[in-house]
Design a protein that fits this description.
With 201 residues, the protein is an alpha/beta fold. It has one domain: 3-Layer(aba) Sandwich (Rossmann fold). Helices cover 41% and strands 18% of the residues. It has 9 helices and 7 strands, in the order βαβααββααβαβααβα. A 7-stranded mixed β-sheet has the order 3-4-2-5-1-6-7, with helices on both faces.
């Protein structure tokens, strides 16, 4: 069975998406079957992998999550794109924002992404999820679906300070919804050694 790893951070931004791209391609170069899921309405991961206009994609994660919510039948490979570097991608665009809004108040909506991942899990060795840079319903869905969490953190004061709320959320999800969840590690990114703070880290 594959391992589901998410990259989550309230201030992750481009560094977070870049981390998912590099990790995914690195695993593919090792002969692993990899699916990366863009779980961010900004579509940063989708753009980073060569789709500069994600809003024009016919099927994205937003469609898939709506199908799961509505218990519709659908092709499990629908929307998955194959990248020349050997990884598959489930893209995202701004429509995912609407899905996040619709998740609020629906019973067991936090398991929507997990249901999708479980349906394709046997096809991959690793499934990597790039999370939205907030602690909303999309990130909650990712935490419920994940086995492990990597937290990319920029070597600066404010991003590291923002870790506290994320760590509390991870702890709460582990305690109440996903007991197997644990933190794989903190990944320091965008290090500028000209700063005192980066040198101290």
């Amino acid at each position: 069975m594959s391992k589901v790893i998410i990259c989550a951070n309230q201030k992750g931004g481009v560094a977070k998406s870049t981390s998912v791209v590099n990790l995914g391609i690195g695993l593919a170069n090792k002969g692993k079957r990899v699916l990366v899921i863009d779980n961010d309405p900004q579509g940063s991961l989708t753009e980073a992998l060569g789709y500069p206009q994600p809003d024009k994609l016919e099927i994205t994660l937003a469609n898939v999550m709506e199908w799961v919510l509505n218990e519709d039948d659908y092709d499990l490979k629908a929307g998955i794109l194959h990248h020349e570097e050997g990884i598959d991608i489930m893209p995202a665009n701004i429509e995912l924002s609407g899905v996040e809004t619709s998740l609020v108040g629906i019973m067991s909506s936090e398991t929507t992404l997990r249901e999708y991942i479980e349906s394709v899990r046997d096809d991959y060795d690793y499934i990597l999820v790039d999370c939205s840079p907030n602690l909303g319903q999309l990130t909650l869905n990712a935490l419920v679906a994940a086995d492990e969490v990597i937290i990319p953190v920029q070597a600066a004061y404010l991003p590291i300070k923002g870790l506290e709320q994320l760590l509390k959320t991870i702890s709460r999800v582990k305690r109440k919804m996903n007991p197997k969840l644990h933190i794989m590690g903190i990944l320091i990114t965008m290090v500028d050694y000209r700063t005192v703070y980066a040198k101290e880290e």
